[in-house]
């Protein structure tokens, strides 16, 4: 593609417009005031401080409290904090090392206790405790001290400026939600019963987690903001996307969230549904685990990258949905580099690279080096037909190249469990894998690629490390000057294109397909349930 990009709305939607008139209506009907949804995933735990799963972030949008949220345009919206700190409003000090957060008055925990600055300071302490199994301390370890001059003011004293604070310090994309000091002080958060039914600050509270079946939330009458229009929210655990589609059709579900592209045309044609398409900060990718000696060689990674026909995958599997680009940083973002190069599909060039790396084909056509066959393991999750189709195409190309590929599928909650929980991706029990990262509004990607963030110290599960990338990322974090930061991130995108720790498949356009009696859905690039009090389900 050589830096060229292609943009399209979901091609499938054009077909749906013609197929949408289907006789009858969805069976089951549903219940007014209850919102039932699924996305085809199971859950590891409900505490976002300890979970890697996107669905737990979604659930936390209903139940937990954050300094800021991000609306349907990706804009930062104050929530528990009254204003976003800037140098102009003097909530960021002149040297960039002090951040002041003014908290909202009258906020209650869902057990009726008052929320104060002490809860914020307590949570920072939990995150910084080396015994806590957090996903990352990226940004948090820049905090030198937390001061609470009164119940409604928190001051973060930083060791050095941290320009990406909006990503990490108590926002939904940063995973950690604020914890209740009065319930958790003195407890081991890793094993606390709290993790099964967290008490939060959001408009809905957890009332039941029937493992393997559903998570039930009810409206919290003491919520500080607008009263929720819904009485109940039910997340149904249905770890197979075809079954999710069936349950939407039969009326057992009100919404199918993040519908796989291979199902969009079919599901959008159901009667009495509406399709919500929205650009995201997420990108699909195929990763090369550089903790494996074979993949530590950049020539091997480039060869495999050139055997992955991204455009064909985009057309056949993604149905042309999304934004075809060469970099993880979203085209919606101010730091996006439209000229970032990416490897063109070229099996001839791929073969020459493997030859040069000492991997030569044997009599049976399989490449070997020092007597070892090039046989790689691709880890995926069960019930993911889109990934199944993608791996099948890659496997065929690899076979032509003389590279063997074994596809191993795991339950989603095992594949993406934390490092401490033995997650397949986190502990590096694979050669290749493919999923999507949801990036924060600020373009800092240190947690995914910096040397210091290699697992278990972050989510650099690839084992990638390049000092020039680190230097550019570090410089971008220590200034609040956007022009200088953009230059740093363009440099990072160029270096990643050179080193190929992963192949970007596409920047995603996602879809929610919901009953037409569901209102208030306004998904955005960072959050889909950023306005949970406005969601409603009417009678049929």
Q: Keywords for this structure?
A:
540 residues; Dipeptide-binding Protein, domain 1; Dipeptide-binding Protein, domain 3; ten-stranded mixed sheet; 22 strands; 26% helix; globular; disordered N terminus
Give an overview of the whole structure.
With 540 residues, this protein is α+β, with helices and mostly antiparallel strands. Among the domains are: 65-192, Dipeptide-binding Protein, domain 1 (Alpha-Beta Complex), CATH 3.90.76.10; 280-509, Roll (Dipeptide-binding Protein, domain 3). 26% of the residues lie in helices and 22% in strands. It is built from 16 helices and 22 strands. It has helices at 11-19, 54-63, 117-128, 165-168, 181-184, 241-250, 261-268, 298-306, 310-316, 347-356, 385-401, 412-415, 424-427, 446-449, 467-477, 482-499; strands at 6-8, 34-38, 68-70, 76-78, 98-102, 143-150, 153-158, 204-210, 214-219, 232-236, 255-257, 273-288, 322-324, 360-361, 367-369, 372-373, 375-381, 404-410, 432-438, 502-515, 518-519, 536-537. A ten-stranded mixed β-sheet has the order 8-9-10-2-11-20-12-19-17-18, with helices on both faces. The chain has a three-stranded antiparallel β-sheet with strand order 5-7-6, covered by helices on one side. The longest helix is centred in the last third of the chain and has 18 residues, at 482-499. The N and C termini lie far apart (48 Å). Mean pLDDT is 91; it is low at 1-24.
